[in-house]
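Design request, tokens follow.
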């Protein structure tokens, strides 16, 4: 996806002419790609963000890829309308409203898109709900959908959360189904086409949580590693703690065979390989098997039988008899020597009897069994299963902004986003926790850093991290919180080099933009549950 073609001067002029000559709805200028193409896949994506007390949402950081650009005002040239100006009214604003308000009420349509970046970590951008036939469309910057950092097709596990605040999802999570962008952005990363429209499924909220398990055995280590990689990188699953464990294969093999290992086995498996042999004996046993035996104290032995085994039949306990030796018989005491002056005594000293035999004594043993098997590899892990309920369509819950294209430069717009990060001088003006707004008139701009010659700019102090994808709303009615989407922030710039961000830039919304929007706005998404 990396840009391989840089255009300028005459070449750019020729390309512009070709674009004008091409109908705005030409299918060859529109690129679409599935994000979660089945309800099951979408359910797994939603479960990922709801799992572990929404830790991934809470720990997500603002996306900082391609945020700060070197932009400049353009006095001549710049963006131009490719066809006549046009608008698409906002949801609920199909009939003109004449009400006015001096207060700036923030739109419910704005929120954050969350995804897994090329670094494998959760990140977010700003996005907004827009009008569509099925009230299911989100607009944001193209590089908040397409992975321009690692060159994978799209960012993983893409969801939109309107009104997100510190782990709260007041209107639910809306999983992206299909992303649409301009062909020039998908192929060349053309900054002038850095926008995307994404259809989303009905929103969902959690009702319960549970954990399921996965387990599969492979004959080779490489197969097991491939399976583990697939589980950890498949956007349709929410696996955690996936591990590979060596397990015995199907065949006993000689000790020392490559890719083999000794495993503890049951008494029954040992007996199969040593048919007719006494498992309490000394063998000889099949060379592919063996025993480990040790003597144990009598109090460990838990039976009055000569042998027994544990519940898993993996350990054999047995005893062997050791006969007690008879106690030695006491020798008769010799008669005392006769005293020369005493008469001899006729009574001898009595003989001591043998001590009776106390019965057999025992030695006690514990024996385990092993077999040397070819090694298989078990892949196992846990999957978070989240009970979900349907909360309806995005546009029905929060509304949807209209769309304006081919508008004149110099119009006033409100910019709504979640700026975060610091200014170049280190001032950390925004936290990204709450929706902010700025206001100004658009002007022609360009940025050679992203090969963009037809941008529009607006004066804004929004820092880039988090504000990428911010909505630019033309004719915003604060009483109804609705207007016309006329741009999305794709970068910010310090144009006067004073250490403070002062400008946000957006692609110019023209007939080509409308063509991409139109392709997305007529597609149905459906429900997850």
């Amino acid at each position: 996806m990396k840009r391989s073609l840089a255009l300028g001067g005459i070449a750019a002029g020729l390309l512009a002419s070709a674009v004008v000559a091409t109908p705005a709805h030409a299918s060859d200028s529109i690129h679409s790609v599935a994000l979660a193409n089945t309800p099951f896949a979408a359910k797994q994506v939603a479960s990922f963000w709801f799992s572990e007390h929404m830790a991934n949402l809470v720990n997500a950081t603002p996306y900082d890829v391609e945020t700060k650009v070197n932009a400049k005002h353009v006095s001549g040239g710049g963006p131009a309308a490719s066809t006549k100006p046009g608008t698409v009214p906002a949801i609920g604003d199909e009939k003109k409203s004449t009400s006015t308000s001096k207060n700036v009420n923030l739109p419910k349509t704005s929120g954050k898109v969350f995804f897994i970046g090329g670094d494998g970590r959760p990140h977010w951008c700003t996005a907004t709900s827009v009008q569509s036939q099925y009230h299911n469309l989100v607009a944001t910057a193209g590089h908040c959908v397409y992975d321009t950092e690692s060159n994978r097709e799209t960012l993983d596990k893409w969801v939109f959360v309107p009104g997100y605040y510190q782990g709260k999802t007041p209107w639910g999570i809306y999983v992206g189904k299909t992303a649409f962008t301009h062909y020039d952005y998908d192929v060349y990363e053309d900054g002038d086409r850095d926008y995307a429209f994404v259809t989303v499924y009905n929103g969902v909220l959690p009702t319960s949580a549970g954990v399921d398990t996965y387990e599969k055995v492979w004959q080779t280590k490489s197969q097991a590693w491939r399976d583990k990689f697939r589980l950890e990188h498949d956007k349709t699953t929410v696996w955690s703690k996936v591990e590979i464990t060596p397990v015995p294969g199907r065949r006993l093999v000689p000790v020392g065979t490559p890719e083999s290992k000794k495993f503890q086995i049951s008494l029954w498996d040992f007996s199969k390989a040593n048919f007719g042999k006494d498992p309490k004996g000394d063998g000889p046993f099949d060379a592919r098997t063996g025993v480990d035996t040790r003597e144990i104290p009598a109090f460990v032995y838990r039976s009055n039988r000569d042998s027994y085994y544990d519940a898993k039949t993996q350990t054999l306990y047995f005893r062997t008899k050791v006969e007690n030796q008879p106690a030695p018989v006491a020798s008769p005491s010799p008669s005392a020597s006769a005293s020369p002056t005493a008469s001899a005594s006729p009574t001898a000293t009595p003989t001591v009897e043998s001590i009776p035999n106390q019965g057999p004594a025992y030695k006690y043993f514990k024996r385990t069994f092993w077999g040397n098997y070819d090694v298989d590899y078990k892949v196992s892990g846990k999957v978070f299963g989240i009970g979900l309920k349907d909360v309806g369509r995005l546009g029905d819950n929060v509304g949807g902004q209209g769309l304006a294209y081919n508008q004149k430069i110099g119009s006033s717009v409100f910019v709504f986003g979640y700026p975060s990060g610091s200014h170049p001088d280190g001032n950390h003006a925004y936290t990204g926790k709450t929706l902010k707004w700025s206001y100004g008139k658009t002007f022609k701009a360009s940025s050679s850093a992203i090969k963009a010659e037809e941008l529009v700019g607006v004066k804004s102090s929004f820092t880039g991290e988090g504000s990428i994808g911010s909505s630019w709303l033309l004719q915003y009615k604060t009483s109804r919180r609705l207007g016309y989407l006329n741009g999305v922030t794709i970068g910010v710039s310090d144009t006067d080099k004073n250490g403070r961000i002062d400008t946000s830039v957006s692609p110019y919304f023209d007939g080509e933009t409308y063509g991409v929007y139109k392709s997305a706005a007529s597609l149905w998404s459906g429900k997850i549950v």
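Comment from the thread starter after seeing the answer: thanks! DSSP finds eight helices and 28 strands in the chain.
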